[in-house]
């Protein structure tokens, strides 16, 4: 299995403004503390950990919305961790993101078809209304949705539009950061099974951030457990869940009601 990303000695810190002295620079808050790992191509890798453990920061480094302080981020063998914006431009289409809160990431004044077609045009991947309708079809929304505005959609439908916008660009990588957190359980199951099917059909590599291990268990091939900016467990989901090596992972696992989970909930239409 080849690695789409190889991350080496990744360090990132933010200025800790709450502890800034009156004179001089703020101390740094180390958020990613020098870890290394590979993310296999064509698989779904879950990133789990408590709030504040660095999941979103790590994801934002992968799609290069953030530049690490030090360390390497190899994308398909190319070092991208420290590229400037101009050098990143040809890679931007390949590194897409689906956001936690689609209400704030979808332009409220644009109809759905424009929301999907604008990035397609920007990246030279078509962008007609019928291209947008084709993307909607892939996420199970009928053509009439092209004319709607975000506020006319349910949470699950908005998240589908976010997915349609990302996959319409035919990226190689999608970062999905807590994308089902705001949804009811049945919409969650539908969005997750859609994402899983699309990832498989398109050969996408997905990093799926969640604080919910039951979701990771059903969706992901691999899992990374982060704690205070360090990797405390990493590997195929079945192995990590059956033989967690860290106390952190054991605690996270003990917090989910796996036995109560209806075995079929995830696969429902
Ligand atoms: P998670 O997604 O696991 O909840 P984050 O990556 O969002 O964690 O945050 C990790 C830590 O970094 C937290 O302590 C958070 O307060 C801090 N942090 C995140 N983004 C910023 C930022 N832009 N400026 C300063 N601190 C930040
Ligand atoms: Mg986060």
UniProtKB/TrEMBL annotation:
<keyword id="KW-0067">ATP-binding</keyword>
<dbReference type="GO" id="GO:0005524">
    <property type="term" value="F:ATP binding"/>
</dbReference>
<protein>
    <submittedName>
        <fullName>Dipeptide/oligopeptide/nickel ABC transporter ATP-binding protein</fullName>
    </submittedName>
</protein>
<keyword id="KW-0813">Transport</keyword>
<dbReference type="InterPro" id="IPR003439">
    <property type="entry name" value="ABC_transporter-like_ATP-bd"/>
</dbReference>
<dbReference type="GO" id="GO:0055085">
    <property type="term" value="P:transmembrane transport"/>
</dbReference>
<dbReference type="InterPro" id="IPR027417">
    <property type="entry name" value="P-loop_NTPase"/>
</dbReference>
<dbReference type="InterPro" id="IPR003593">
    <property type="entry name" value="AAA+_ATPase"/>
</dbReference>
<keyword id="KW-0547">Nucleotide-binding</keyword>
<dbReference type="InterPro" id="IPR050319">
    <property type="entry name" value="ABC_transp_ATP-bind"/>
</dbReference>
<comment type="similarity">
    <text>Belongs to the ABC transporter superfamily.</text>
</comment>
<dbReference type="GO" id="GO:0016887">
    <property type="term" value="F:ATP hydrolysis activity"/>
</dbReference>
<dbReference type="Pfam" id="PF00005">
    <property type="entry name" value="ABC_tran"/>
</dbReference>
<dbReference type="InterPro" id="IPR017871">
    <property type="entry name" value="ABC_transporter-like_CS"/>
</dbReference>
<feature type="domain" description="ABC transporter">
    <location>
        <begin position="12"/>
        <end position="253"/>
    </location>
</feature>
């Amino acid at each position: 299995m080849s690695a789409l990303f190889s991350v080496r000695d990744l360090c990132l810190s933010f200025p800790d403004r709450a502890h800034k002295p009156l004179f001089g620079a703020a101390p740094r808050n180390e958020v990613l503390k020098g870890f290394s790992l590979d993310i296999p191509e064509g698989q779904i890798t879950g990133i789990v950990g408590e709030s504040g453990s660095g999941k979103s920061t790590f994801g934002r480094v992968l799609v290069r919305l953030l530049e690490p302080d030090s360390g390497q981020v190899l994308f398909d063998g190319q070092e991208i961790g420290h590229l400037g914006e101009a050098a990143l431009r040809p890679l931007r289409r390949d590194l897409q993101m689906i956001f936690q809160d689609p209400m704030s990431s979808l332009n409220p004044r644009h109809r759905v078809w424009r929301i999907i077609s604008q990035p397609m045009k920007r990246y030279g991947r078509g962008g007609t209304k019928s291209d947008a309708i084709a993307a909607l079809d892939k996420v199970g929304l009928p053509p009439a949705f092209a004319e709607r505005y975000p506020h006319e959609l349910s949470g699950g439908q908005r998240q589908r539009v976010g997915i349609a916008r990302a996959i319409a660009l035919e990226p190689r990588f999608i970062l999905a950061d807590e994308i089902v957190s705001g949804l009811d359980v049945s919409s969650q199951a539908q969005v997750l099974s859609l994402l899983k099917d699309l990832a498989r059909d398109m050969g996408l590599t997905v990093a799926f951030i969640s604080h919910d291990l039951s979701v990771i268990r059903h969706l992901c091939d691999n899992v990374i457990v982060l704690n205070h900016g360090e990797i405390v467990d990493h590997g195929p989901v079945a192995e990590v869940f059956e033989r967690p090596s860290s106390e952190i992972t054991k605690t996270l696992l003990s917090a989910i009601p796996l036995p109560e989970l209806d075995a079929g909930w995830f696969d429902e239409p």
